[in-house]
Design brief:
Blueprint lengths: L13 E4 L2 E4 L5 E4 L2 E4 L3 H20 L2 H17 L1 H10 L5 H21 L3 H5 L35
Antiparallel strand pairs: 1-2, 3-4
Helix pairs in contact: 2-4, 3-4
């Protein structure tokens, strides 16, 4: 058989849901900018939302340091595929060449920033607890001069 006589077999494109590639319920796909993309049905979207909600509980139960490592690894993977991500933005019509590069750089920077905050946000959100028997941290003996509030209208800094 000649190659031109053969029946062309269509590739089945899949959705990534719950850590696995699943076929779309409809089995349909669309061609967008030269690439085939699976078309999700309402049931597929519902399944993805249920899986994401279940994964969120597991994600929240992980240690903050581990969440930071996962996000940092994501940033490393984005950095390794920087040009590919920028090309996809250009192909999708989202941004031009230089703007796409800036957007990918900003996304990588934000991911690193959030990775760094994973194990720090609990400590920063806690209120300062004064020592037992003391009503304010400003009553500590021998405090340095830079602890005093420099605001001219207040006698005491509002933080303390």
């Amino acid at each position: 058989m000649e190659p031109s006589d053969r029946v062309r077999i269509r590739k089945m494109y899949k959705l990534y849901i719950n850590g696995a590639f699943a076929r779309s319920e409809s089995g349909r796909s669309d061609q967008i900018d030269g690439e085939n993309v699976a078309r999700a049905s309402r049931k597929d979207v519902r399944d993805a939302v249920v899986a994401a909600r279940a994964a969120q509980e597991k994600w929240a139960a992980q240690a903050p340091a581990l969440r930071g490592l996962v996000l940092y690894r994501l940033a490393e993977m984005m950095e390794a595929r920087r040009t590919e991500l920028a090309e996809q933005l250009v192909l999708g019509g989202t941004a031009g060449g230089a703007a796409a590069q800036r957007e990918v750089t900003a996304a990588i920077d934000r991911t690193v920033w959030y990775a760094g905050w994973c194990d720090k946000y609990l400590a920063s959100a806690r209120p300062a607890t004064p020592s037992p028997g003391r009503t304010s941290i400003s009553r500590l003996p021998n405090r340095p001069a830079w602890w005093r509030c420099s605001h001219p209208t207040s006698r005491r800094c509002s933080v303390w």
